[in-house]
Design brief:
Length: 240
């Protein structure tokens, strides 16, 4: 089965998974994280509100506005990816449970879980996502300082988007890698071999995630289900 056919089949089976009421309890952590980030945004907006009044001052206001715009534009992509990886890390134990449930519904494979296992999954996600984010920062710097001057901003942004999609896909597929007891070093090797599978999954995640509010709520939940089904149908290419 080709990669694209696996994803098409995963979309076709999405209704099968969502029709199971037990699946929907796994969206509760996403609701909590979404509310938390919403309140955090409101808090920062309240704290920064006085700065908006200062922008009306002659000269000083222009300096503050220009400095704010420069900082915002310079750090926007880094902040976005840092926040995204943080969300995936916080949700990792619960999305791992969701992935296991989908596997059980499809193949009958039952994965035993415990509190110690949840803590272990969280620690694995922390280690993995820190590595992925550092890798993103390094490669993004190379794209910004070396590739963009040579090939232009459009090409650089396209490469950056593909890079981040691959890394997000890696994080999402890792719920399956952990369940089948693949260590992180092995998963990096397998990920490089099956890079297009991860790239499509991460692209799908970003496409949904950028939707205000709903993205944080549904992207991890839905894409975990989809990538789990894709992993199951392509499992032979990962475990051999």
């Amino acid at each position: 089965m080709t990669v694209f056919n696996s994803y098409i089949q995963a979309f076709q089976q999405l209704g099968f998974y969502l029709s199971n009421g037990a699946i929907w309890k796994f969206i509760i952590p996403s609701v909590v994280v979404t509310v938390f980030y919403g309140l955090l945004f409101l808090m920062f907006s309240f704290i920064l509100a006085p700065l908006n009044l200062l922008t009306f001052l002659p000269w000083v206001g222009d300096f503050i506005q220009n400095t704010y715009d420069w900082l915002w534009n310079s750090s926007l992509s880094v902040v976005f990816y840092a926040q995204s990886f943080t969300v995936l890390t916080l949700l990792s134990p619960f999305m791992s449970l969701l992935s296991s449930k989908c596997d059980e519904m499809t193949t009958g494979f039952v994965d035993e879980y415990s509190t110690a296992r949840l803590i272990s999954d969280l620690w694995r996600a922390v280690k993995l996502n820190i590595r992925l984010f550092i890798l993103y920062l390094i490669t993004a710097a190379v794209i910004l300082w070396l590739i963009q001057p040579l090939l232009g901003e459009t090409v650089a942004k396209g490469l950056s988007y593909l890079l981040s999609s691959y890394l997000f896909g890696f994080s999402l597929f890792d719920y399956n890698f952990e369940r089948y007891q693949m260590n992180i070093s092995t998963t990096f090797k397998k990920g490089n071999t099956n890079w297009i599978v991860l790239l499509i999954g991460g692209t799908l995640f970003q496409f949904i995630y950028v939707i205000p509010i709903l993205g944080t709520l549904f992207a991890p939940f839905l894409v975990t289900i989809i990538t789990t089904h894709v992993f199951i149908t392509t499992k032979d290419s990962w475990i051999r």
